[in-house]
Amino acid sequence: MPKMRYYIWTIGCQMNIADSRRLASALERLGHAPAPRAEDADIVVLNTCVVRQQAEDKVYGRLSSLKPLKSRRPEPVVALMGCLVGNRDPAPLQKRFPWVDLFMPPSDPAPLLDYLAERGLVDEDRALAAREDGRRYGIQDGFLLPRAERGRLVSAYIPILLGCSHACTYCVIPYRRGPERSRPAAEIVAEARALAAQGVREITLLGQIVDRYGEDRVAGSGLRLVGLLEQLHEIEGLVRIRFLTSHPNWMNDDLLRAVARLDKVCEHIEVPVQAGDDEVLARMRRGYTADDYRRLVARIREIVPSVSIATDIIVGFPGESEEQFQHTYDLLAELRLDKAHIARYSPRPQTVAARHYPDDVPAEEKERRRKLLDDLQAGIVAAINSRLLGQRVEVLVEGKRKGRWWGRTRTDRLVFFTAAQDLTGQLVPVRVTWSGPWSLVGEVE
Ligand code: SAH
User: How far apart are CA 170 and CA 134, in angstroms?
Assistant: First the structure.
């Protein structure tokens, strides 16, 4: 079997990062090795995102840059993976990008493994085993991290819920990642154990509506998120557990109490509001009002003291008036959340919004609204972080960047500090000496 070199380019959400890592793991199990650049690789994979037009445009740019690779001899295999492909017929993409050899839906490395097997580029038995893993989306025994990350990766993502069945009117994800499916708890626990055995200290459980974990199964037939967290909590070696993204309607007291009760589960909740105006929320089909969200934030803070809360917001949704935008602005100012990711609306193919609501907020106006919210939030976070000055925070060290160690607090704040010894993977007490909106700097206690 010829040994090949692979290169994977990833854009988009945490789920894509997890999918790419899994593909890399499968390729290495087949005996292949990573290449530093696409130009040096025999297998080139683009793992794509189309959640907004901006991401999609980046993918097209990168795709075009790969075209010249195909004039090389021997030609590399070029594969397109992720949400640009989705679960759709790839024929139109094939026509537009004839230099792409194969198209893979999100979270499924099987098509590439099949392709390599058909061409005699992998050993048949090993390919079969890897394909089986791909179908189950879970590597039961011994999920092996790519070699370069073994013993080095501190924080890893574990997808626990694939797809989404909610269909917010702006969102393309349900059309590309298919309906919601919970992975079996036993598989997730096995994966977490395997990761811990390879040095991983923190896991982040992923799902589009992660607080719905298990709800897609027939009642009573499996664990819900609380039960899963309890099982994962028992795993030796893991020191922190996170989960994202939650939907307000599925976040309940049971789950919040589990966050408060279970030591390893971090006090950090990512729960997007998307808008602060009830009419906009209704047209987004989010299923709650601004007041519902207010009450939820109060409840989260009541049950989980010292919690940090992150949110996502879309500005310039079709029909969003100045007044409606102001409601979002006021809500964000009132709630003083710990993080907000602000996105300008872009129409996505197939979605209800793209088909029925004209994209009528001009680009400059979207940008103006985005900036207003960004500035507001930067001020809020700067004030929140400045209260940490002189305090001691616990940092899980993930690595070194520009000569300084970096890691995050339980509440997901980025912290930099200097130290002589390698502290990667350790929980380190750090006294905060400087604070800004995006990070903290401190000294080891
Ligand atoms: N499932 C999560 C995250 C979905 S995608 C949720 O419940 O919201 C991540 C973020 O991208 C979303 O929270 C939303 O703020 C943003 N987003 C999704 N579709 C978008 C679109 N068409 N235009 C702009 N932003 C969008």
Answer: 30
- Ligand 1 centroid to Cα of residue 282, in Å, is 15
Q: 171 alpha carbon to ligand 1 midpoint, in Å?
A: 6
The DSSP secondary structure of 46-79, one letter per residue, reads EEE--SSHHHHHHHHHHHHHHGGGGGSSSPPEEE
- Other residues' Cβ atoms within 10 Å of the Cβ of residue 357: 17
pTM of the full structure: 0.96
Distance, CA of 288 to CA of 311 (rounded, Å): 15
Q: Would the CB of 113 count as within 6 Å of ligand 1?
A: no
The residue whose CB lies within 8 Å of the most ligand 1 atoms, and thus the one to mutate among 49, 51, 164, 311, is: 51
Q: Ligand 1 pocket, 359 CB below 6 A? A: no
- Domain 5-126 architecture: 3-Layer(aba) Sandwich (3.40)
**139-197 pLDDT tens trace:** 444 578 999 999 999 999 999 999 999 989 999 999 999 999 999 998 899 999 999 99
Q: Is the shortest distance between the CB of 314 and ligand 1 below 6 Å? A: yes
CATH number assigned to the domain with residue range 392-444, chosen from the 4 options 3.40.50.720, 3.20.20.150, 1.20.120.350, 2.40.50.140: 2.40.50.140
> 53-77 pLDDT, tens per residue?
999 999 999 999 999 998 888 899 9
Left (φ > 0), alpha (ψ -120 to 50) or beta: where does 330 sit?
A: alpha
Residue 87 to residue 181: CA distance in whole angstroms? 14
Residue of 50, 273, 314, 355 to mutate, ligand 1, most atoms within 8 A of C-beta: 314
